[in-house]
């Protein structure tokens, strides 16, 4: 595992939903680590349960195809509905293309309505991975950042 994946892994283990999503993506695509769809979906699910909208799209697609998780159209509908509600690109299209019995769609929509974020307990990060410095405000000019103009 390369340094970037190790950094995401440390942050993901500490309960950071964005890091969990990023680590899932690393495993899904094989960036800096061996490709492992089962591990990717585990990280996507943890992030999705915390309300991470892009992770909800990825885990919804996984359930719709049975990739890395058991095939479950109601769960797919639930996660894709949640992602679509947050206007994640592609989520509504995936939901519209999902072919399922009416009872599975109804169950998925009910699950989406009942969804409550599950916050993971925060764990301290190891000292070699301190919290990143915040980005400058969007109104910061290139000159203020030290770029030669």
Outline the structure in words.
With 149 residues, this protein is mainly α. It has one domain: Tetratricopeptide repeat domain (Serine Threonine Protein Phosphatase 5, Tetratricopeptide repeat), CATH 1.25.40. It has helices spanning 3-13, 17-29, 37-49, 53-65, 73-85, 91-97, 102-114. The longest helix is centred in the N-terminal third of the chain and has 13 residues, at 17-29. The protein is globular and about 45 Å long. The termini are far apart.
How is the secondary structure organized here?
Layout lengths: L2 H11 L3 H13 L7 H13 L3 H13 L7 H13 L5 H7 L4 H13 L35
Helix pairs in contact: 1-2, 2-3, 3-4, 4-5, 5-6, 5-7
Radius of gyration: 18 Å
The rough form would be described as globular
What portion of residues is helical?
55-70%
CATH homologous superfamily (4th level) name: Tetratricopeptide repeat domain
- The fraction of residues in strands falls at under 5%
How many DSSP-defined strands? 0
Give the class from helix and strand content and strand pairing.
mainly alpha
- Average pLDDT number: 84
Tally of separate helices: 7
Number of structurally distinct domains: 1
Write the CATH architecture name.
Alpha Horseshoe
User: In CATH's first tier, which class applies?
Assistant: Mainly Alpha
Distance between the termini: 39 Å
Sheet having the most strands: none
């Amino acid at each position: 595992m390369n340094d970037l994946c190790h950094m995401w892994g440390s942050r993901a283990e500490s309960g950071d939903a964005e890091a969990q999503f990023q680590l899932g993506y690393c495993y899904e695509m094989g960036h800096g680590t061996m490709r492992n769809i089962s591990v990717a979906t585990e990280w996507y699910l943890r992030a999705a349960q915390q309300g991470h909208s892009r992770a909800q799209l990825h885990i919804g697609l996984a359930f719709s195809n049975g990739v890395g998780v058991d095939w479950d159209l109601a769960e797919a509908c639930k996660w894709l509905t949640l992602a679509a509600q947050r206007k994640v690109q592609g989520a509504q299209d995936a939901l519209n293309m999902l072919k399922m019995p009416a009872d599975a769609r109804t169950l998925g929509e009910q699950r989406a309505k009942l969804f409550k974020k599950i916050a993971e307990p925060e764990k301290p990060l190891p000292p070699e991975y301190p919290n990143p410095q915040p980005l400058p405000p969007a109104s910061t000019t290139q000159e203020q950042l030290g770029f030669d103009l």
